[in-house]
Amino acid sequence: MKVLVIGATGHIGTYLVPRLLARGHEVVALSRGQRQPYSTTPAWENVETIHLDRKEEEGKGTFGKAVAEIGAEVVIDLILFKTASLPQLVDALAGKVRLFIFCGTMWVYGPTEKAPTSEKDPRLATADYGRQKAQIEEELISAALAGGFPATVLHPGHIVGPGWLPIGPAGNLNLSVFEKLGRGEEVCLPDQGLATLHHVHADDVAQAFELALAKPRASIGESFNVVSPEALTLRGFCRAVAGWLGREPVLSYLPWPDWRKTVSEEDAEITWEHIHHCPCGSIEKARKVLGYSPRYTSLEAVREALDWLIRHGKVNLPPLS
Ligand SMILES: NC(=O)c1ccc[n+]([C@@H]2O[C@H](COP(=O)([O-])OP(=O)(O)OC[C@H]3O[C@@H](n4cnc5c(N)ncnc54)[C@H](OP(=O)(O)O)[C@@H]3O)[C@@H](O)[C@H]2O)c1
Question: DSSP state, 220?
């Protein structure tokens, strides 16, 4: 089938495009052409690339038409963030695609009320990003159930892989926490360090997209969480990372209002975003309906990412493997 991936050269696309090619699909990769995939295989030479700026085209009202003209049977949209972006896409693609797969997020659920969170749980997003993703999901699923538009929605957790920064044991992107744990130095965590993070390896996200595409009858009109088998607490995350370097974690704790003063504004903001949500998703539906079988636990995914960062001189610790 001819499959268009919108936003094809980022974290997910790096793994998804080769998977689609291996399944025998004809792949069209749409991006602005500013980024390269994190890793490439010779198979990427068989990908048709289309460079255009979605924002610009949307502003002119021509994005939907440009996408429809590509003539793909399946459209995978990895960079749909705004409800305002939806109508021109749906209008242009209705009746022309067999499947439209939208990349949502675990943030649609808002701060966790039931763990693990399942797709049946309410969408209680508190911030604009999650709210807009939830609204897009609602509109797509309603359209699919009404028979008007064949949409499927996937909700990844924190996407991890070699080549970029993972959300770390303090719930932010500051790499010094890994170094402190690896050297046996004290790490201070907010509250009791019991907030959860739910990572997923980018290749497992790609796997879920590939499965949703392969099983349209099962996936159309449905949403699926796409995370690793288990969430991690900040404490547990620290223990594991220290253990990779043969250490015991040395942890201390401060209430959030005090803790936030110990880090930069930016780190505090990212940590707050994560500990406020405490994501912990169930993958039972994706397992049962799609056959999703993540290859990586959260820790395996982060370990691979950390090893890459060490080997590329971004984290000053001995290699892990
Ligand atoms: N990161 C996470 O932990 C996380 C967690 C949950 C859900 N998600 C969801 O994952 C999706 C993002 O996937 P990703 O992490 O693979 O993306 P990514 O790594 O940020 O890559 C974005 C891709 O889109 C292209 N792009 C960016 N702006 C564009 C524009 N204006 N016009 C055309 N192409 C554009 C980029 O290439 P160019 O720059 O060359 O254009 C690149 O190919 C989002 O829907 C997000 O909500 C992410």
Answer: T
